[in-house]
Structure formats: C-alpha cells, structure tokens
Amino acid sequence: MLEDPAVDYLAGRVDEMDAAALLEAMSLIRKRLSELDVLEGMDDGERILVTKDYRIILPDRFDTEIRMRPLVKTVFLLFLRHPEGLRFGDLQDYRAELMDLYQGITRRASGPEMERSIDRLIDPKDNSIHEKAANLAAALARYFRPESLPAYKLTGKAGAPKRIRLDRRLVEWER
Is residue 41 a part of any domain in this protein? Predict the structure, then answer.
C-alpha cells in the first residue's frame, strides 16, 4: 500500500460509509481514474475477431457482426492496429495503410473517388476525421453498453494521440 495521508484517510473513512456513500465515492474515484487514463484494461471488454475480409465479429455474441460504413470501419481498424494511438494531424503518414484497408473493406480497386475520401480524411484542415470518429462512436453504441463503450471508441485529449483503449489481447486478426 502507498504511504500517503490521502490513502490512509480514505481507508479509514470507508469503514464509516453506508452503501450510498460508498457508491458515490466509487463513482468519483472511477471518474478520476478515467481522467488519469488508469482504467485501461480494467473493463476488459469483449473479444473481437477481424476476418480476412475485414468483417468485425463478436465471437461471444453468437458471431454478431459489427456493421458500419466502409470509411468509418477503415478508421476503426487503423486505430485497432495502432494501440499506441495516432494524432489526427499525423494521419497523412498512414495514407497507404488507410488506402489498403479501405480497398479491402470496399473490395474495389483504387479509384479517384476512394483516393479523394482518404485525402479528405487525412487533411488536417478538413473535418472528415472528426465526423468519422463521431460516426464510429454512434455505430459502436448500437453494440455496446454505455459503460463498455469507452474501451472501443477513439479517446484522447485535443492535440494528443487518439486511441482505442481495448486490451489488444481481446482482438484477433484472422490470417
């Protein structure tokens, strides 16, 4: 245990609290831990299988497929591949990877329309990546409880790397 007066004080107070006060304290502690980005891995989430053809499957839910628009799925899979996170402003460095994912998801050969979509996505002056992040959160909200959702959606402060906090041991990429 840490040698900290605050920890000692809290430990002493826990024994004095009723259930309602304990629940309120737990809520405040969870919120603070979340702000400090300490909760990663505590709510492990559910397993995800990404198939060869880029379908996203929840194996523990009778192989339910998570469906989303191709460009939104492209963003999700890119960030799943990069657990360290990526800055939106650096996405131009991942253009080729985005194109490969997008082509695999849409199953079409590269074309000017696909390239324009990716170029808008990686353009720091365009709002496309923010729109796709919002669409991703909305799509995932159809499959996960609100308390589980933060593990799957893009999180991160403005200007900092955005990432998907899901424990990557729960993600299987089919070969």
Answer: no
